[in-house]
Amino acid sequence: MAINNIVTRLKENREIQHSALVSLNIKSTFDSLDWSVLFRTLDFYGIAKCFRNFIFHYLVDRKVVFDDGLTRMEKICTMGCPQGSVIFPCHWNIYINPILNLNSEKFPVQTLADYLTLVSTGRTRRELETNTNEILEKIMENLTSVRLKLLVDKCQAIAIRSQQNLNRQRTGQVVFNRSPCFKINNKGIKISKSLKILRY
After folding, report:
1. What is the per-residue pLDDT across 8-50, written as a single tens digit (0 to 9) for each?
2. Domains in the chain: boundaries
3. Domain 1-28+103-191 CATH class label
4. Residue ranges of the alpha helices (H) in 101-153?
5. With b meaning 16 or more CB within 10 Å and e meaning fewer, what string describes 116-146?
6. Model pTM?
7. How far apart, in whole angstroms, are the C-alpha atoms of residue 89 and residue 42?
């Protein structure tokens, strides 16, 4: 459903504006969930104490065990979110909510598993660059606030030209002659001709 919404939005945007779809890869997504940030977030949203206690006791006393028959190692878990559990999506959605609060009708921001996606628009290539980089900066600020990082080398984007060209030149051309420049922490994001989301 989320991917369908993205595709629909890009098609609609192309009628009148240039568009960009940016795929942001969060570093060690589910292993990086900081429990202190999670409980601070639960307090911020006024989650009842009984639910906070349930989540606390669900997370504590967890450990990772490696045993190959010759060596046994144990490490106590102090962060991360147990994957495969029914409560995991709830943990993650609450944790990532400061970033999702940036979602708007103009610039949709969505999560797709361990990816964030952003759709941005602009009437000109420069405006598309400016709009995209401004929202990327806000996303980075909010990710930092919940102690998450992006793998910038794995982030990608596609830039799509509008079908209506203000100069009435190259009308209908899909790609730009000179691609927009999108950056995170002054590091450029790769602009591709196609983009795979969730490896599909």
Report:
1. 777 777 778 899 999 999 988 888 889 999 999 999 999 999 9
2. 1-28+103-191
3. alpha beta
4. 125-145
5. bbbbbbbeebeebbebbbebbeebbebbeeb
6. 0.80
7. 15
